[in-house]
Design brief:
Transferase(Phosphotransferase), domain 1, 3 domains, 15 helices
């Protein structure tokens, strides 16, 4: 993580946790109240009446140089996470007895991950290594590594975990499936009258009290490697990804495949196949990962959702020969930019332009945040392709698609109105994604950072002209504030992630 000194795991965990919470304070607490001031080389802010400062670079990404400080009795003193938690609790309205514990749990998790990584071997596969590189998590989240449940470290991608799935036999008369699930049948053998259902061992431990005789435990199956989302794994032997349910909270959400999301994955795969073919004709570097099937057990909603697994195509299957998929979030930590301007131009071209094409031309809302995009690098390390994934966050703009034949809950889960969809696209693409990549490419060179955004603006303006200058994109290029997701706010309110609002931040395209 940029700006962190090499130290013991506990020290690094404290620095990372403090940095993430302070970023949240700048964006969601002090910023909206007009209590943030530039005072080069520092950024000043006031929280609960206390003046804080930190050296920063990277624009809106807020990369810190050195330890943040607080003013006490006329002198600047080091700030700690626990002190900042206390200031946040004093500043915000209401009461949240969970907040301090969640922040502390995330800090402890980072320390545990760092200690585990010290004795672990990363995957040889560069894509999987990038999936397991996110030690510190979301840079604008108060508790980015907080996880529910026990025994999570043995399944943690950041700890370079790998483990065998558990194979269940599901009686054929209670099998629930849709689409192409042939990859699951190839993972093991079931007795006559049963079908194979792989299960995440962590989830299976959580569900054992409610399992019945309709299911057989067939023992361990193929070894899988967890990717950045924790619950989605790559099965090398089957060459597919499997998206499991996990009844534990990871950052904001309990990561469960709702029944309508299982159905929606297959529905969207069918609808988006011709759409992505058209987009790839305009933007040849565009790829995506279909989710062609799901399987579960029709044994009531708890088990149907809890045991549901979605089959997802592997990124290696869609990238061209000689192109290596790398998680965008890993590039935000260390982008291989030998020629930063040319690298950035290629990056914005392959990542941003098809997202805008999908929204304006086809009424499709992607969630192109750093963990939903893989960037295919060529032999020189230059971005050559972009791979978009995770249909759970992909939506269809209301009124642009006929959803009349779908179950109302499935249709509702697949839809966003145009305004909500555009806010999601802008947040994921610009605030969460390009802002972080630009900060890494530019480092501490503010002049280079401004040049990167000038290039991005030129590319987006050219795209806007080709699309007929749609008003939302014109406003964006004119400098309209960007919507930044309020992760601190939603955690403080103890609300579902879907209830998260946005706060406005300055637009670097202006």
């Amino acid at each position: 993580m940029p700006g962190l000194a090499i130290d013991a795991p506990s020290g690094l965990a404290e620095e990372a946790t403090l940095a993430a919470l302070l970023r949240c304070c700048v964006r969601e607490v002090a910023g909206p109240r007009g209590l943030v001031w530039p005072a080069p080389p520092y950024l000043l802010l006031r929280v609960a009446g206390v003046l804080l400062r930190a050296r920063t670079h990277g624009g809106a990404a807020l990369r810190f140089d050195g330890p943040p400080e607080r003013l006490r009795a006329g002198a600047w003193q080091p700030l700690s996470t626990d002190e900042l938690v206390g200031l946040v609790e004093a500043e915000l309205q209401g009461h949240n007895g969970e907040f301090a514990g969640q922040v502390a749990a995330s800090r402890d998790a980072v320390a545990a991950i760092l200690a585990a990584r010290a004795g672990a071997v990363p995957p040889a596969d560069p894509w999987l290594a990038s999936e397991q590189a996110l030690v510190y998590g979301h840079p604008f989240h108060p508790s980015p590594k907080a996880r529910g449940g026990d025994g999570w470290l043995r399944y943690a991608p950041e700890a370079h975990a790998e483990f065998p799935v558990r194979l269940l036999g599901v009686r054929e008369d209670v099998l629930a499936e849709e689409g192409d699930v042939a990859a699951l049948d190839a993972m093991g053998r079931a007795p006559a009258g049963y079908r194979v259902l792989p299960a995440h061992p962590w989830q299976l431990d959580l569900l054992r009290p409610v399992l019945g005789g309709e299911l057989l435990d067939l023992g361990p199956g193929p070894v899988v490697v967890p990717t950045s989302s924790v619950r989605t794994v790559y099965a090398p032997a089957a060459e597919v990804c499997l998206k499991f349910s996990l009844d534990v909270r990871i950052t904001n959400c309990v990561r469960k495949n709702a029944w309508y999301e299982l159905a929606g994955a297959v529905e969207l795969t069918g609808r988006l196949t011709p759409v992505f073919e058209k987009v790839a004709a305009e933007h040849p570097a565009t790829r995506w990962l279909p989710e062609p099937g799901h399987r579960s057990a029709a044994l009531g909603t708890r088990l149907h959702e809890g045991l549901g697994v979605i089959v997802r195509q592997s990124p290696w299957a869609v990238c061209d020969p000689g192109v290596t998929p790398v998680l965008a979030a890993a590039l935000a930590l260390d982008a291989p930019a030998h020629d930063p301007l040319a690298w950035w131009r290629a990056y914005v071209t392959v990542v941003a332009l098809p997202v805008l094409e999908l929204y304006f031309t086809h009424g499709v809302v992607l969630e192109p945040h750093l963990q939903n995009v893989l960037v295919g690098l060529d032999a020189s390390g230059t971005p050559a392709q972009a791979v978009f994934r995770d249909l759970e966050g992909t939506k269809l703009v209301t009124g642009r698609h006929d959803l009349g034949g779908l179950h109302p809950e499935v249709a509702r889960a697949l839809s966003y109105d145009a305004e909500r969809g555009w806010a999601r696209v802008v947040y994921c693409l610009l605030v969460n994604h390009l802002t972080e990549i630009a900060a890494t490419v530019a480092g501490e060179d503010d002049g280079l950072l401004r040049e990167l955004w000038r290039i991005a603006r030129d590319l987006l303006a050219r795209q806007a002209a080709g699309l007929g200058w749609p008003l939302p994109l014109s406003d964006l290029l004119a400098g309209a504030p960007l919507p930044a997701k309020a992760n601190l706010g939603v955690r403080w309110a103890r609300a579902a992630d879907r209830a998260a609002g946005y706060v406005p931040i300055a637009n670097p395209l202006a």
